[in-house]
Amino acid sequence: MSLIHDFFLCDKEHIDYRINHGGIEMDDDLIRYMSDSLKWIDTEWNELDNNKNGLNYFGMTIFRGESLSELVNIIKGWIEVFKNAPARFLLTVDYDIDSGLYEKKEFEKVKVVDQMTEVLEMCGKAQVSNKVLVHAGI
Question: Do 34 and 7 contact (CB within 8 A), yes or no?
Fold first, then answer.
């Protein structure tokens, strides 16, 4: 079983990653595949006003305001890319130092696009409410 990243909504006044918020789970290999583009976003790590870039891989990332809009644009771009994939597709994930080869992992297009669409819907809810989108790393 692979590692999982969670995305969920929280009130700005009470951000807590330890509570199960009924969010969206995304595969770690998919997140790592997209990670270079996610580093372009100015985010907040673990608490408000702790400014960083990209996802906090092992902790909490907070998206609000401009960072939420930037995430929406990047996710929309990835959705367009993955819409062009076959029903099942391979992504290059890890490098195996022993074999000297890159590992490939299979993903299902519908599942990937659906997860990303759900993240977009959460972003929309956060933008019109007093909520933030939170990413909980592995």
Answer: no
